[in-house]
Design brief:
Mean pLDDT: 93
Shape: globular
Number of strands: 17
Number of helices: 14
Helix content: 25-40%
Radius of gyration: 21 Å
Largest sheet: 8 strands, mixed
CATH class: Alpha Beta
Structural class: alpha/beta
CATH superfamily: Metallo-dependent phosphatases
């Protein structure tokens, strides 16, 4: 891989990546991983937590807003992978209830599946306040709903969990039960296509079902990009809609963001206890998304996701023989901030996950030949990048990848990928 002198200068930048050349240039896309634990109403002082974890989320959003072009930075777009908030407002949505689905108690997840008025009173307003920071800075963004963003999440009656911890032998539906989701009224109330964030915005170019899936465009580095935010519980209708949106924007390099796609092993496989396609015949899975949308549309060059705790990187050739980069990033289990505040470890002996403010930054250099993607990970709370944090591996490796040495663990959150074939697919930058 050849790195031009201009690309090298851009790569040495640590906070603001603004760097342009005679053809193309550099810009950043911020990726917001699952923020649910920071927004969780039980993780706030008013509920007895030692600090307001929501301040970590709000600080993330303020930091990103500070990197907007309007404020001297180069963040051209923000992609949110879902699980914006934690709790639900209904025990089951009317549509699934009418179709005969039944909820059963699940001692392992009943607390997590709590339907509470605090969702509307605390968690949704917190999310709205955070995204208002992006809106005030003029940064376009897209949000893909995750399972916690649905109005209801329940344990399905066809998969009864065991009642004795001694009987738990594996993390699967036959042992712990199977969760399912439904309803997106809460999501539409914050991120609907007619919301304060998206209504009338020229870069918000398409939506389905009031905004449960949506499309945006942004221009940076000499290209106009298309972004698709696809809901977690998607069916054939969503796949058809997404194909129509891509067809309506021919030739644009396209990013797909969805919640459940890669697991931490880099497999396109659902969480064994949140396998939506296994519960509902109308739902489709990640492999279907790859096979019927991503692989067949040569415009899609990048896929972003969350949901599965940890990180993963995968590159596959699509039907045209071009590489598609697929990235997982979910830091919700990280809880050094909780430990520092004296919060006891949870029942699994892990820190109470808050996320510690970590988020992904994707730095693109389209002046390089081939164009280059540099992936970095930053926490506004600690004001540092993963590779510059002296105890990054010491804090997080034991709970995430104890099999790796320190350098390899850090490298999962700080690496470069050439965008091979990018110019063949999308032409030269303008």
């Amino acid at each position: 891989m050849r790195i031009t002198r201009l690309a090298l200068v851009c790569l040495l930048a640590t906070v603001s990546f603004a760097c342009a050349g005679p053809s193309g240039g550099a810009f950043s896309v911020a990726v917001l991983p699952d923020t649910q634990n920071a927004i969780d109403y039980t993780h706030q002082e008013a509920h007895g937590f030692p600090f307001d974890a929501s301040e970590l989320f709000l600080a993330q959003m303020e930091w990103i807003a500070g990197q907007a072009p309007s404020r001297g930075g180069d963040v051209a777009f923000v992609a949110a992978v879902g699980d914006v908030w934690q709790h639900q407002s209904e025990t089951m949505d009317p549509e699934h209830a009418a179709r005969g689905f039944e909820r059963i108690p699940n001692r392992w997840f009943d607390e997590e599946l709590e339907a509470t008025p605090q969702t509307a009173a605390i968690e949704l307003p917190t999310a709205r306040a955070g995204y208002a920071s992006l809106a005030s800075a003029g940064i376009p963004f897209g949000v893909a709903p995750g399972n916690h963003d649905y109005d209801a999440m329940w344990s399905d009656s066809r998969y009864p969990p065991v009642d004795d911890a001694k009987k738990i032998r594996s993390f699967d539906a036959e042992t712990l039960g199977m969760l399912h989701v439904g309803g997106l009224d809460n999501f539409r109330s914050v991120f609907g296509d007619d919301s304060e964030f998206f209504g009338g915005k020229p870069w918000y170019v398409a939506s389905r079902n009031g905004g449960t899936s949506s499309a945006q465009t942004f221009t940076a580095g000499g290209y106009t990009f298309l972004h698709l935010a696809i809901e977690m519980a998607f069916g054939d209708d969503v796949l058809a809609w997404a194909s129509e949106v891509i067809a309506a924007h021919p030739g644009l390099p396209t990013i797909v963001t969805t919640h459940d796609y890669l697991n931490a092993a880099g497999e396109r496989r659902a969480n064994p206890i949140v396998d939506l396609a296994r519960v509902d015949p109308q739902d489709r899975d990640a492999e279907t998304l790859w096979r019927e949308l991503i692989a067949v549309h040569d415009q899609v060059f990048l896929v972003l996701c969350g949901h599965h705790h940890g990180v993963a990187t995968r590159v596959d050739e699509n039907a045209a023989g071009h590489p598609v980069i697929q990235l997982l990033a979910d830091y919700q289990d990280r809880g050094q901030t909780s430990l520092d505040a004296g919060v006891p470890k949870n029942r699994l002996g892990r820190p109470v996950g808050i996320g510690d403010g970590w988020l992904r930054m994707l730095h693109f250099d389209t002046a390089s030949d081939p164009p280059l993607l540099r992936v970095r990970t930053y926490s506004p709370h600690y004001d540092t990048w993963a590779e510059e944090h002296a105890v990054y591996a010491e804090w997080y490796k034991p709970g995430e990848r104890p099999d790796l040495d320190d350098a390899d663990f850090v490298a999962l959150d700080a690496f470069e990928l050439p965008l091979e074939g990018f110019r063949a697919r999308f032409g030269n930058p303008r």
